[in-house]
């Protein structure tokens, strides 16, 4: 029998966005690992265990989100639903939407078609579409510039490679604010010193897929985390 770890008494419950008899979705906070990983030995708190303890039953993640990425994370509650949901992700029939704050002014719309190499050395096709929701210019000097420019972008990854969105925006020279190691260290230092920002500004805001039992279209949306909201206000975005 699998051992259930105890949640600390002061643990904040996860925000449940959707739940029925076969699946559950949460708004994953920044910094929370989905499950145990040999490359992250500095924590013993994981979304799988936290959610399992919270709802009192076994959960299995249907997809993944980076530790530093917040937003919609979907879990299955039985093996049949897990297989059905995972097949949708593998077959690219799930519509995933992210929001990010990036350095500079991005194009109104863009397509990033840039292959990525995974941790096993295999190069894979990687495609990301995006559109710019808003641009801002704030009176904060940076380098030789008297002001700083940023964009709020809506992102639609068509493939699901590791750190794909982060690597793609770094590739087009509009790195995501707070991203390490793919982002801009000088910008990250600026945000740490001026706004005490330690999180990455990438949020999985919406997911749309087919219900594994009924077949109906399900759309789940996750509100921004508090730090994302704070930076929207600090950078004078109007949203």
UniProtKB/TrEMBL annotation:
Coiled coil: none annotated. The keyword Isomerase applies. It catalyses: uridine(65) in tRNA = pseudouridine(65) in tRNA. GO terms for biological process: enzyme-directed rRNA pseudouridine synthesis; tRNA processing. Its EC number is 5.4.99.26. It comes from the Bacteria. One of its GO terms (molecular function) is tRNA pseudouridine(65) synthase activity. SUPFAM superfamilies: Pseudouridine synthase (SSF55120). Residues 23-171 form the Pseudouridine synthase RsuA/RluA-like domain. Keywords: Isomerase, tRNA processing. Responsible for synthesis of pseudouridine from uracil-65 in transfer RNAs. This is tRNA pseudouridine synthase C. It comes from Roseivirga echinicomitans.
């Amino acid at each position: 029998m699998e051992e259930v770890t105890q949640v600390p008494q002061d643990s904040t419950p996860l925000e449940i966005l959707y739940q029925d008899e076969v699946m559950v979705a949460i708004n994953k906070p920044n910094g929370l690992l989905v499950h145990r990983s040999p490359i992250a030995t500095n924590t013993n708190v994981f979304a799988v265990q936290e959610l399992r303890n919270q709802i009192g039953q076994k959960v299995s993640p249907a997809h993944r989100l980076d530790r530093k990425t917040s937003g919609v994370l979907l879990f299955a509650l039985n093996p049949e639903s897990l297989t059905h949901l995972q097949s949708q992700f593998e077959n690219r029939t799930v519509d995933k939407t992210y929001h990010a704050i990036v350095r500079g002014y991005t194009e109104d719309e863009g397509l990033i078609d840039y292959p990525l190499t995974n941790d096993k050395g295999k190069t894979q096709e990687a495609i990301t579409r995006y559109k710019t929701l808003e641009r801002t210019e704030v009176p904060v000097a940076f380098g030789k510039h008297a002001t700083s420019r940023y964009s709020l972008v809506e992102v639609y990854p068509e493939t699901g490679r590791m750190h794909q969105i982060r690597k793609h925006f770094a590739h087009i020279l509009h790195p995501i604010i707070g991203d390490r190691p793919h982002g801009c260290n000088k910008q990250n230092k600026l945000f740490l010193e001026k706004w005490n920002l330690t999180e990455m500004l990438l949020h999985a805001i919406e997911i749309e897929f087919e219900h594994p039992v009924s077949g109906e279209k399900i759309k789940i949306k996750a509100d921004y985390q508090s730090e994302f909201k704070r930076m929207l206000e600090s950078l004078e975005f109007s949203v």
